[in-house]
Amino acid sequence: MWCSRIALRRLQRIGVEVSACSAAGFQRAMSVLPKVYVTRQVPQDGLDILRKSGQVQFEMWDSDDPVPRNELLKKVKGCDGILCVLTEKIDAELLDAAGPNLKVISTMSVGFDHLSLEELKKRKICVGYTPDVLTDAVAELTVALLLTTARRLIEATHEAKTGGWGTWRTQWLCGYELANSTVGILGLGRIGVAIAERLKPFKVKKFIYTDVTPRPELADMIQAEYVSFDEVAKQSDFLAVCCALTPETQAICNKNLFTKMKKNSIFINTSRGGVVNQEDLYEALSTGQIAGAGLDVTTPEPLPTNHPLFTLKNCVILPHIASASYTTRNAMSALAANNLLAGLRGEPMPKELKL
Question: Which family does it belong to (predicted)?
């Protein structure tokens, strides 16, 4: 019995020593894994990829609201990679705070106007982004916003709820049809093509587009005609803005555009708020220069509730939800995670932004 107790104690001591060694080994392994900061509570698919990879140690701002800037600057210190969303400004200040270990920025967005590309290029930091996976969701939302604006659905819902629905009237809440219309696209890319494909069954008569240069391969997919910037304004019954925000497109939708548009035209923007001069848009809508506008993006975001655009019945404003489907947001999260891991391994990213 006594011998058995001694043997048991020995085994217990050995177990403790093994556990201590295992813990020390785990800590050493963790210390050499690349350090990553995730700036937002991203959808589960992306988090699962990071956790199961065993290739990184990561910390996340566990909230659906943006991480405070001061907190962000502290958390990125010493990081090898950052997985961010479009609300985080990745500029020289943040890159300096992160330090020389930073190798990869992976943004869960197709837009990249929140990234200081020159700074990233100068520091040889790789950038991943998430195009393609959100094309269908954005196209669907654009069509929904166009129809909602053109057929005055928000106004109609309000009237039904507040007692405005009286006897049937011949011209009450009349809107505009897509049948036999001309649809213009400002900036023809994957999303512009997907929008046109969804609108075609509505018997649209003609698709036109304008861009920096003609894009015949994409245009042929939807039988769209290339026209000048002025002509897309003059001819369009519905104008969908799909261009990226760049120095060249900043406030490109301004008085010059709106004064050339038809009085019965509908303006739709699901790209970036910065491409629109909102003061000029307010004037165009309030004076009847154009019939209506549907916006999924604004400047700033969120748009203050006392902004003049909210006072207009002919302006439908959504809180930047074009990619907000469960399928798409999970796909974006997964792609952002895979971009990050590939970049940290020194391999080509599935979707790398060429700087």
Answer: Belongs to the D-isomer specific 2-hydroxyacid dehydrogenase family.
What is the domain partition of the chain in residue ranges? 35-133+327-353, 153-160+174-313
Which tokens is 312 given?
Answer: 């207009």
Is residue 333 within 8 Å of residue 108, measured between CB atoms? yes
Report pLDDT for 242.
Answer: 97
Cis? peptide before 131, omega within 30° of 0: no
pLDDT digits (tens, 9 = 90+) for 283-313: 999 999 999 999 999 999 999 999 999 999 9
**CATH topology assigned to domain 35-133+327-353:** Rossmann fold (3.40.50)
Is the pTM higher than 0.85? yes
How many Å separate Cα 213 from the centre of its chain?
24
Which residue is catalytic, options 114, 158, 307, 320? 320
Fold entry, domain 153-160+174-313: Rossmann fold (3.40.50)
Q: Which helix (H) or strand (E) holds 47?
A: helix 44-53
